[in-house]
Amino acid sequence: MAGPTRSKGCQGCLKRRIKCDEVHPECNNCRKRGQKCPGYERERKFVFFEATGPTQRSSTDVTPRKPKLRSSSESTKIVVQRQRAKGNPAHWHVPCDTRVSPSLVTGAWELQYRESFCAMLEGDCAPILHAYSQRTDSSWIHYLRSPHEDQQNALGWALRCVGSFRLGRMHEERQQSIVSREIYVRAVRELAHSLNNPSLILDDRTLAASCVLGTYEIINDDGQASWVTHAGGVGALIRLRGPRAHMSGFARTLFLSFRPWLVFGALLLGERCFLEEDQWAEVVPEVIELEAKSGRVSPLANLVEYAYQDIVRCPGYLVQTRKIKYASHSDESERKGLIERIISSQQRLEEFQNEISACVEFNQPSPYHYHPEFIGAMTVEAGNLMGEYTLKGINSAIALLQRLLVVLQNDGQRDAHADLDQTWATPAGTQLLTPESTTEKDHPLPDPLTDRGRASREDLLVRVALSMGMTAGTLPI
């Protein structure tokens, strides 16, 4: 039996059944004959196929077949039908675009995952987006919607992870949420490869992937506070890059987006926040000057930046107070020096509190009672929300510092020591890790973001971000 032709010659030579020299774009045989070469692309033949599969014939229903000569086209049709009959009929239910162009389907899903993440930023997390987008060179939305040369990197897998989780939750498909965890494992593996690559470890895309995966841990409520560990990794990467790497560009957006969670995570773990180091405070005036030169002046944002310099010291104050509390022999000079630093930070925070309260009015029924020159390069709603949550964060920080002063000024009193432990008690009755229990790995840290009533994880994301990691709604005082 003659099988399907394997010749790669042009269609004219195939019809004449002569050997083609396969010269492109026209073969010499057609050129010598003075006719136009029909080309080398074969015409596709489409045959009808039923998904139910071939009809089963009984063993007795056998009739002798007469030998019959078939053309090459008929032989090709028979071979294709036999190959399809051997396969699983369900395989042929795969959409045509998936079989013909798999990359097209992959690109469509990639775009959908990115748009799902952008929808979260423009929807539930809009206050965060609008608070920073007008003050930075590149926002999250602008960066994610710009063309990228490689989608198979850590950032691409991180966006797939968050997008898959949100699509599954939106359509109430539990399987999609489970798939997001599998994608998360792949994203973490790709992130590890980037961190081990000297040319990628300090790249903005690597930091962006870390921030997106941290966001996934925050919105994925597993009750284990996995985001705290991840936030520590993001902080280590930011610290390695240095303060001057986050003064402008998309890196500035990444830094502003994740900075509150570095403070919040340090408080939960009972550790000092590296942002209290002098090198991070020294670049604040330069950043404000750059924003002024580019026409993105915002006095409210400037006050928030300066207030941050005392907010980031709060975890360190808590650590030093615990150290003095649990020390067998406390140093009097160390205790007095800590009291002076805490009082100084408290006074500065109270000054910022008074300035913001005097310029932003939140109790008015109309959202247009504001000072536009004070809000600056932000929308009205974003400026009001930023000022409101900033005041809540400053109030929480002042309340914490006052509790620490009570403990230090009543040096050695049992009631004051107990009061320090109750300072960070959550509604569920859990407490922050003490210096003694910090080293124990057997007991995972409970997630303080769980059991927050009707507040969604995205709402808590906004609350923590705009309150500088010190929100009273998350850390009861």
From TrEMBL:
Domain Zn(2)-C6 fungal-type: start-end pairs: 9-37
Biased composition (Basic and acidic residues): 438-456
Record has Signal as a keyword: no
InterPro entries referenced in this protein's UniProt entry, alphabetically: Fun_TF, Osmoadaptation_assoc, Zn2-C6_fun-type_DNA-bd_sf, Zn2Cys6_DnaBD
Transmembrane residue ranges: none
One Pfam family here: Zn_clus
Domain of life: Eukaryota
GO molecular-function term, one example from the UniProt record: zinc ion binding
Biased composition (Polar residues): 423-437
Key words of the record: DNA-binding, Nucleus, Transcription, Transcription regulation
Region (Disordered): 54-75, 419-456
Keyword Zinc attributed: no
SMART domains per UniProt: GAL4 (SM00066)
Listed name of the protein: Zn(2)-C6 fungal-type domain-containing protein
Organism: Penicillium paxilli
Origin organism lineage: Eukaryota, Fungi, Dikarya, Ascomycota, Pezizomycotina
